Amino acid sequence: MCRLSVVLSAALLLVTACAGESEAPRPPAQAVGERYVNLGDSYASGTGVLPLQQDSPFLCFRSTRNYATLVAERTGRVLTDVSCARAATEHLTAGQFEGAPPQFDALTEDTELVTMMIGGNDNGAFGQSIGLCGAAAAATPPDSCADDISALRDKIATATAPALVTAVRQIRQRAPRASVLLIGYPWILPARTGCYPDVPVAARDVPSVHDLQRHLNAAIGRAAAAAPGVRYVDMAGVSDGHDSCRSEGTRWVEPARNRAASVSAVGGLHPNAAGQRAIAEQVLAALN
């Protein structure tokens, strides 16, 4: 995610939508005009998929084609999108940087739908896992990052999971009328075999990184189950076979290297346009 060190390109490449794409199912017509708030990190903001929302802080990298925008367009909901690249659960209640106030400030008693996709930046789950595994793979002789991944997995249990439960409770307090959807992350890597160096994780460590993501998604699912009126949108099952090691046109998440030409310089290890559409379809299905 955006915890990874990134050098911004001087020119960002424009995303073009594929012609002839089928639309996801449309929720009932009574959704038109409902107030909708999207919360979360770079996976929620659509980092890497251009063009950007004009009123978005540049460093939030909010895409005009992220899943929340697609859901709002297809249902007639009125969207307030405060998702932001590099956001962690702490940024739900504390400002991230100037121009990016606490995301929960967008919630009101009149909010009728909330989507949230967050947790991957907490305690360095995604960024550190790829960074540490990349360093291990490049070492001479090559090393394993399994112990590092185990430590990150423990942090999901001891810190990220309770932070998610608290966040859901606060959403319910601030937006008591809202339907709330917590969205899990699509697979970054397959279960067993990777694609080093396009994703810098050695083959021996791919199962550990995959398992780390499984633990994070499970924590998100448990947080949703712990509160009334909150549902979990599972992206793991539907994204199987669409990870970043698949061919262009099949993958929903871009690799760190050899990305598609339609993905901007910050889009590595993030959902591409097809991935954002896939998340939107699952959200829409959950709303039906």
From TrEMBL:
GO molecular function: hydrolase activity
InterPro entries: SEST-like, SGNH_hydro, SGNH_hydro_sf
Organism superkingdom: Bacteria
Signal sequence, start to end: 1-19
Domain SGNH hydrolase-type esterase, chain residue ranges per copy: 39-278
SUPFAM superfamilies membership: SGNH hydrolase
Keywords from the UniProt entry: Hydrolase, Signal
Record-given protein name: SGNH/GDSL hydrolase family protein
Organism per entry: Gordonia pseudamarae
